[in-house]
Design a protein that fits this description.
The complex is a heterodimer of chains A (115) and B (115). Chain A has 115 residues and is mainly beta. Chain A has strands at residues 4-7, 10-13, 18-25, 31-37, 44-50, 53-57, 64-70, 73-79, 87-94, 105-106, 110-114. In chain A, strands 2, 4, 5, 6, 9, 10 and 11 form a seven-stranded mixed beta sheet that branches. Chain B is built from no helices and nine strands. Chain B has strands spanning 9-13, 18-23, 32-38, 45-50, 55-56, 61-64, 70-75, 84-91, 109-114. In chain B, strands 1-9-8-3-4 form a five-stranded mixed beta sheet, with no helix packed on it. A four-stranded antiparallel beta sheet of chain B has the order 2-7-6-5, with no helix packed on it. In chain B, β5 (55-56) and β6 form a beta hairpin. The termini of chain B are far apart. The relative contact order of chain B is 0.34. The chains are: A mainly beta (115), B mainly beta (115). The interface between A and B is medium-sized, with 28 and 25 residues.
């Protein structure tokens, strides 16, 4: 299995809602990532988890809260989002964080719309 | 990580070679050149990477100039399915700082393959 899966594919939420994005991989990878991609822009790194510990937080607002319950799962909890947070949220994984040259495998993304 | 410069768009006829250039004049000795692509509405996909020697795999070839200030990704026989945004990324080997995994995407080249 060489896939990274993400659910849901699409999500529409209001500014007062709480929702979660889910990401799963069964490749035995120990590093997992969240990226945000606005329309017609490149992906931007948000968070990196390495061996289930948060390794990098790119100064992301606290209304985005990542969680890595185990080595196969990565969640992104959303609360009190703003319309400008509407974007494609991409999850990726790689063999690990510290060994260089590990290619990242990306999921198809969750397209989030905040009303 | 060094910045990269790519043309915003290119066209290529189906069956012909697509040559995508990338300038990375500030690259340092321990930085690798990576290429990813993103087909519309999908997550990015790893293509190839290299340090100083030319590299080839089943998807593409990577030609890096001797001074390493630029590189070219070659898709030998482009098909319509190769229509995508191609990202050239320079990435360092900061193994012990935990930042080795960071992929900083530039604006990329939008390749349109036509009949």
């Amino acid at each position: 299995d060489t896939e990274v899966t993400q659910t849901p594919k699409h999500l529409v939420m209001g500014m007062t809602n709480k929702k979660s994005l889910k990401c799963e991989q069964h490749m035995g990878h120990r590093a997992m990532y969240w990226y945000k991609q606005k329309a017609k822009k490149p992906p931007e790194l948000m968070f990196v988890y390495s061996y289930e510990k948060l390794s990098i937080n790119e100064s992301v607002p606290s209304r985005f809260s990542p969680e890595c319950p185990n080595s196969s799962l990565l969640n992104l909890h959303l609360h009190a989002l703003q319309p400008e947070d509407s974007a494609l949220y991409l999850c990726a994984s790689s063999q690990d964080n510290l060994a260089e040259l590990n290619e990242q495998f990306f999921g198809p993304g969750t397209r989030l719309t905040v009303l | 990580d060094a910045k990269t410069t790519q043309p915003p768009s290119m066209d290529c006829a189906e069956g012909r070679a697509a040559n995508l250039p990338c300038n990375h004049s500030t690259i340092s000795g321990n930085e690798y050149v990576y290429w990813y692509r993103q087909i519309h509405s999908q997550g990015p996909q790893y293509i190839i990477h290299g340090l100083k020697n030319n590299e080839t795999n089943e998807m593409a070839s990577l030609i890096i100039t001797e001074d390493r200030k630029s590189s070219t990704l070659i898709l030998p026989h482009a098909t319509l399915r190769d229509t995508a945004v191609y990202y050239c990324i320079v990435r360092g080997l900061l193994i012990n700082t935990g930042t080795a995994s960071k992929l900083t995407f530039g604006t990329g080249t939008r390749l349109q393959v036509t009949l």
